[in-house]
């Protein structure tokens, strides 16, 4: 599902909200998650999962096109850990 599909589904399920209102709500939620992660905080959505960041050390990488070695700086990357309810729902559907 892409962002526009999410907005359309929420607007369809909540006819009292306009599509413009739903777009603003979805954008606000994503912006708040992004800014919390950027400031080093963790975001937990009960029943869905938790977003956090993980540190990656500096390393020596390789350019796949030329084969030359390149220095890759240390960085933080986003990490998602699914919640128990989400895992159970996914595994129940697989059975």
From TrEMBL:
Gene3D superfamilies for this protein? IHF-like DNA-binding proteins
Query: What does the subunit section of this Swiss-Prot or TrEMBL entry state?
Result: Heterodimer of an alpha and a beta chain.
GO MF annotations, alphabetized: DNA binding; structural constituent of chromatin
Q: Which UniProt keywords apply?
A: DNA recombination, DNA-binding, Transcription, Transcription regulation, Translation regulation
> Which family, according to UniProt?
Belongs to the bacterial histone-like protein family.
UniProt name for this protein: Integration host factor subunit beta
Domain of life according to the entry: Bacteria
Identify the Pfam families for this entry: Bac_DNA_binding
Q: Tell me which Gene Ontology terms the entry assigns under biological process.
A: DNA recombination; regulation of DNA-templated transcription; regulation of translation
* Gene Ontology terms: cellular component: chromosome; cytosol
Sum up the protein's function in the record's words: This protein is one of the two subunits of integration host factor, a specific DNA-binding protein that functions in genetic recombination as well as in transcriptional and translational control.
Extract the coiled-coil ranges from the record: none
Q: Could you tell me which CDD domains the record lists for this protein?
A: IHF_B
């Amino acid at each position: 599902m892409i962002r526009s599909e999410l907005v359309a589904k929420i607007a369809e399920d909540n006819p009292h909200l306009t599509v413009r209102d739903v777009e603003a709500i979805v954008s606000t939620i994503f912006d708040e998650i992004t800014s919390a992660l950027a400031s080093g905080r963790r975001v937990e959505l009960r029943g869905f999962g938790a977003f956090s960041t993980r540190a990656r050390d500096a390393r020596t990488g390789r350019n796949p096109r030329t084969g030359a070695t390149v220095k890759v700086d240390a960085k933080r990357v986003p990490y998602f850990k699914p919640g128990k309810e989400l895992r159970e729902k996914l595994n129940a559907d697989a059975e």
